[in-house]
Structures are given as C-alpha cells and as structure tokens.
Amino acid sequence: MKDYVPLVVAAVAAMTALVGYLLNGAAGRRTERMRRYADALDAAERYQQLPYTFRRRHNETAEIRDELARMLADVQVALAFHRRWLRMDAAELGDAYDALVDKIQLKNKTFRKEALIAPPAGKDVEIEVSPGHQYDQAAERDECIRRMQKYLRLSRNIL
User: What is the pLDDT of residues 6-64, one digit of tens each?
Assistant: First the structure.
C-alpha cells in the first residue's frame, strides 16, 4: 500500500493541474467572448448615434463630409465584421444581432438625412441636440443580450 501513495499523490496533482488548466482556459475564452460581445453592441450603438454626430457637425466643408463618410464607413465595416463573427460563434446569436442591426437600419438612413438637411451647429448650445429619434429596438437589443448571456455561461467554454 505504501508503494501506491506517491502514485496517488501524483495522480491527484495531475488531475488538479488539468482541472485548473481547463478552468483557466475557459475563463480566458469567456472573457474574450464577453469583450467581443461588448464590441458588437458598441458598434450597434455607434451606428445608432450617427445621426446625432452628423447633426453636430460645425460646418459643411468637403473635409467634414469626408470625415462623416469615413465615420459611416467605419461603423458599417464594424457591423459587418460583428455580424459574421457572431454568426460563426452561434447561428442563433448571429440571428439576434442581425435583428438588432436591421431594426436600427430601418430608420438610421432617414435620421442621417434629416441631420444633414439641418444647418450645422452655429452655437455651442446647438451641440446638445435632442431630435428625439426613436429606433424602437429595445426588444431586439434585449433578445440579443439574452442570447449573449447564454453563450457566456462558463460550462460552454470549458472545452
């Protein structure tokens, strides 16, 4: 029996190390997934805020138009990236994110055009614009977050 003690101790140590390795890896994958999900939601929020940013422009020069166009392109590229990444992560998660972005897109172009029709901000007080754009995407956002939380559960990230 004494001869098996070192073997049992080694086996317990190996199992402890393996479990620690698996849990640490799962925690790292969960953290990375959480960051990616937050980035995806951030891209959707930046897209939703574009009309406000357009309205806050301070003049109508070619440089400002170029900056606004670049801003729009950057947000659209980010949305496309997150749509694909979330779909690869899980089809149902991709569906939920698509529904959220699609809902924002329904009105975003109209709101951006309205913002560009309005005169540029001429006074500091005009920077604090509140045109009251309503996207009505709360249900889609909540569903997307619910599915993200589902995929953040630690048990999904162990292997």
Answer: 777 777 777 887 777 677 776 778 889 999 999 999 999 999 999 989 988 888 899 99
Q: At how many degrees (to 10) do helices 138-152 and 91-117 cross?
A: 140
**Cα–Cα separations (whole angstroms), residue 104 to 32, 51, 77, 93:** 26, 12, 15, 17
HSE of 133 in the Cβ direction (CA atoms, 13 Å)?
23
pTM of the model: 0.79
Whole-Å CA distances, 116 to 50, 85, 121, 126: 11, 32, 11, 14
Domain definitions of the chain by residue range = 2-157
Q: Are 25 and 144 in contact (CB under 8 A)?
A: no
